[in-house]
Amino acid sequence: MKRFYRQAAAVPAAGVPLSGSPPGAAAPGWAVTLDGRLVKTPGKRDLILPTAALAAAVAAEWNAQEGEVRPAEMPLMRLAARTLDRDARGREAVVRQIAGYAGTDLLCYRAVRPPELVQRQNAVWQPLVDWATLRYDAPLVITAGVIPKDQPPASLRAFAAAVAGYDDFTLTALQAVTGACGSVIIGLALIDGHIDADAAFAAAQLEESFQIEAWGEDADAAARRRALAAEIAAAARFIALLRA
After folding, report:
1. Helices (H) and strands (E) in the chain — how many of each?
2. What is the rounded CA–CA span in Å between residue 173 and residue 181?
3. Which residues, including other chains, have CB under 8 Å from residue 168's CB and lie 6 or more apart?
4. CB 101, CB 183: distance < 8 Å
5. Angle, to 10 degrees, between the axis of helix 197-204 and the axis of helix 206-215?
6. Spatial CB neighbours of 115, under 8 Å, sequence gap ≥ 6
7. Between 1.10.3580.10, 1.10.3720.10, 1.20.120.680, 3.10.290.10, what CATH number should domain 88-242 receive?
8. Confidence at 22, pLDDT banded by 50, 70, 90
9. Domain made up of 8-76: CATH architecture
10. Quick one: which of 54, 89, 174, 218 is 20 to 30 A from 164 by CA?
């Protein structure tokens, strides 16, 4: 759609009228407004965010739109709206989805050959698996090849409990990273501050990067990797702004 506003701003939520609230009702958090009018999510929820830093960054995304509003260029807005439009049942589904990755986590399935790839996976992936084992008291079975292996039920429960312990906004970022990387271990490591976005991308794309070094990279693959890196970086920034 065409840009229909002059200025976006982040303001205390208590200073703007909220849907379904009596006049003068105060609300915690920060709102994003367009020419003084409260932004709504696609699900028609008020865009109320928990930190001033996140609200300011979302407002900056709106201000950066020129001529037309392009949601694809507003990753923080999309993550925020996804959070606010999710109900309790949706939250339960997201927790199950994220925790389910522990059963077939990328980092648990190692190559058989060539030796150089096996060595690189062990060097990059095993420290992350070890970290998760200690952090969540959740050892996982490591296997060579792609045949699924059952993971210890106690470990799966531990990962599910860890995921369920996050607030709604953090859960959205964790869902984005876990899905992009195919690994709840990478997702949790990023959310926990154990690794940054670059390290998360490198771990998730380790095998692809190895193949590119040997055979080169075509334009479609390069575009997919840029999009993946941007998605991970946006989720990492979302988390940083939540904690600012």
Report:
1. 10, 6
2. 12
3. 83, 86, 91
4. yes
5. 70
6. none
7. 1.10.3580.10
8. low
9. 2-Layer Sandwich (3.30)
10. 54
Judge whether 32 and 49 are in contact, CB under 8 Å: yes
Between β-strands 143-144 and 8-12, what pairing exists: parallel, antiparallel or unpaired? unpaired
Name the 3-class secondary structure at 17.
Answer: coil
Domain ranges of the chain: 8-76, 88-242
Q: Lowest-pLDDT range, 155-164, 184-193, 209-218?
A: 209-218
Q: What pLDDT is stored for residue 20 in this prediction?
A: 58
Phi, then psi, of 66 in degrees rounded to 5: -120, 120
Q: For residue range 66-111, what is the model confidence (pLDDT) as tens digits?
A: 999 999 999 999 999 999 999 999 999 999 999 999 999 999 999 9
In tens, the pLDDT along 192-235 reads 999 999 999 999 999 999 999 999 989 999 999 999 999 999 99
